[in-house]
Predict the 3D structure of the following.
Amino acid sequence: MTEPVLARLTTLFEADRDPAKAAAMRAYMRDQFAFLGIMAPRQRELARVATAGVRRPNEADLLALADACWAREEREYQYFACGHLRRHVAVLTPAALPVLRRLITTRPWWDTVDIVAARVVGPMVARHDGLVAEMDAWIADDDLWVIRTALLHQLFYKSRTDVERLFGYCALRAGHGDFFIRKAIGWALREYAKTDPDSVRAFVAATSLSGLSRREALKNL
């Protein structure tokens, strides 16, 4: 399935290439990646056309297509892969986690990592209890994007959140010096505060967090 979908997508994306918008998008992303210059709504429209009539992918299809997209230079291909993984996350098994880790740590930046963390890894962990131990290992990892994924994987769990784990992860990484980790701590806490504001207030009051993490956590309280 990979080659026909990628071939269609390439044809569609190339026809919509816009150098002026690509330059602006690249600048916005701090010159981290090349872009075709296709805005998000149009990307989604073209993705639907590229996958129209194609059979439902299995795990091997999904991961092969994601790897193929990650090998492309322009960022829109990685955005397509993230959306495709999210759409079909139900077919992914624990065996897919090493591949997802590779995607997280290859061409890494918040724009793809956060989608994979909260919308792909998160639902997988929710379905497969055995992956909780993997998140415990990821929060202790040396790679900042792997750490960020562990922090954010419960982002949309709401009342299903493992609160002890959420607070434990945040406390463990509270002293991390990187902006993206401190921001993720605050974001994870702020999102859970929508479910249980009192517990977040109490945790923030009792924990030595960075100013950034604290501000983000309490922003809506």
